[in-house]
Amino acid sequence: MSVEAQTEHKEKAYALLKADAERIRKLIEVQMDNLTLPQCPLYEEVLDTQMFGLSREIDFAIRLNLIDEETGKQILSELERKLSAFHEAAIGSK
Amino acid sequence: MSVEAQTEHKEKAYALLKADAERIRKLIEVQMDNLTLPQCPLYEEVLDTQMFGLSREIDFAIRLNLIDEETGKQILSELERKLSAFHEAAIGSK
């Protein structure tokens, strides 16, 4: 496979994963805004399910050599960091 | 991207998804073999989680033009068919 074709495909895969991470961040933050209690079990379940789905996509992309493992870990940890910061703020303001 | 490079990548993506579907089939069937009650909630939860993970991978592959939507649907429905057949047999034999 030509190098530039590979790069093109890798960039698209990376952009898709970042967009999915951003979609999950927004989904969870909207949920938290509407929750009286941020510890609500449903919120945790939605979060776990979405994070599991994203981790399956990332694992799939890694196995297809579309992203490397380190990049995959970064996408997940960045999303986790943003969500826990938002969660702290949400608890602080309740 | 050269046609043969695209085909190579698509075949690899398809093979990965089929292998993941097979891995889930085996995981669920082993669970069912060890269950006294096939309706056990944990079994349903594991099944739902695994199917959700596979559907996220398939959706990701479709968006990357690695497989088409019809192929994605086939992989999921074939796995669902196998699992429900096994589930019927498991209930029948309890």
UniProtKB/TrEMBL annotation, chains A, B:
Family the UniProt entry places it in:
Belongs to the UPF0358 family.
- Write down the InterPro entries for this protein, in alphabetical order: UPF0358, UPF0358_sf
Q: Which domain of life is it from?
A: Bacteria
Q: What is this protein called?
A: UPF0358 protein D7Z54_25910
